[in-house]
Amino acid sequence: xxxxxxxxxxxxxxxxxxxxxxxxxxxxxxxxxxxxxxxxxxxxxxxxxxxxxxxxxxxxxxxxxxxxxxxxxxxxxxxxxxxxxxxxxxxxxxxxxxxxxxxxxxxxxxxxxxxxxxxxxxxxxxxxxxxxxxxxxxxxxxxxxxxxxxxxxxxxxxxxxxxxxxxxxxxxxxxxxxxxxxxxxxxxxxxxxxxxxxxxxxxxxxxxxxxxxxxxxxxxxxxxxxxxxxxxxxxxxxxxxxxxxxxxxxxxxxxxxxxxxxxxxxxxxxxxxxxxxxxxxxxxxxxxxxxxxxxxxxxxxxxxxxxxxxxxxxxxxxxxxxxxxxxxxxxxxxxxxxxxxxxxxxxxxxxxxxxxxxxxxxxxxxxxxxxxxxxxxxxxxxxxxxxxxxxxxxxxxxxxxxxxxxxxxxxxxxxxxxxxxxxxxxxxxxxxxxxxxxxxxxxxxxxxxxxxxxxxxxxxxxxxxxxxxxxxxxxxxxxxxxxxxxxxxxxxxxxxxxxxxxxxxxxxxxxxxxxxxxxxxxxxxxxxxxxxxxxxxxxxxxxxxxxxxxxxxxxxxxxxxxxxxxxxxxxx
Length: 572
What we know:
The chain has 572 residues and is mainly α.
């Protein structure tokens, strides 16, 4: 089933990509409406939009999915229910496809809810306590966004339909559309894990690694960004950009800082995804939806490869994810190491790899835009932090001595894993330049002074050096005061967000539930309810029974009395 799914998705992605390029070249869009039925003048219509943006994004999702499914053949080897796993992943891709080609809020909700439900099934796939906890956090965080879209559907009924594309010009000044845009921004913030909904994204790492490669590159987390790209005219109209810009920059900064103090390989890459989502959100908020879309596609390519390489390492290290147990992997797994370092450099914005074309352009547009010092600092400092945690990851995993079992050996033998990584390696190197020529056929001429033009490269180099310094630090030395350790704890735990979004919210209701259960269900409820009535009846029965046992005359009198009552009722 893996091979069949791979060939079908690979062939479909190629065809859709060619069609997307053709639509982009001739600037063409197809709008399809399919009426299911008409009831009392109300039409139930399925609507699809096929333009260059939806087609190219769909082809990228299918290409990455095909390689992830092929890769799963090795990674999930020994899984009893392999076909079930592949079917769940295919349902996930189908939900994302619904979301991509829908200009209608009702059909968007189908894909949106489908992503939330199937992601829950994938996060709890390994069925242990940690997975269940992560699954509930993921599902409940995403429910907030689902409810926001449901409310926006109810409000949009005022306009006579749910195809928001029809109403851009018509309702630009209406209060209802302002409210709908606010709800859409809230929904996008939950799905793309912006502050304060960030804690579910690293928790979702409980899913199998092939799923993480799919979820964190092109599907679940990018859904919010894609929805806001579609709604970007309304963001500009109602001036919500400043809010989204601040939230995006804070998310980017928080995730970059947290990744520098994390030791779990998958969580570091998850925080890196969170950082890039903040970058996409903030550049979208500044009024550059095409640039945000360009970075979304480029990021999908190298992030899927990064997760695949991490999965290859974890698979060979017998499911160990702690980077402190790695070291000298380059000697044992040269192919994985090459792919890992290429994707890591692409993430940092190394010139002429996929990430460089979008990231460098974004940072130069930031230099050119009218923004304040805080946002400017956050952008460039977060870029430095990206280079920092990437170098730290390289330092721990590739250099030095091997810290795993001394008698243990591992290699790049897995054919399916190697094929999946090589398939993404080429697009992670050449994909950025190809996309930049397609999406921006006329190159953007950005004229900046020398010190700003070289600021990006300087920040990346300084960030890498900072990462080296962090790797060499020993937190057990007396050099660090309690304040420094408190800062490390604060930064490493995502500004305490996992505690705030779990224990803070659930502690009070659970405490109230405990007290009410103790005093009502097990206290007064028992005394006055079932147990109390049971005790009362037992007491009355034993009392009456005592009467009958002590005096036979009372027993006969009672019997005659009840016979008299029955006869009276009979004759009446």
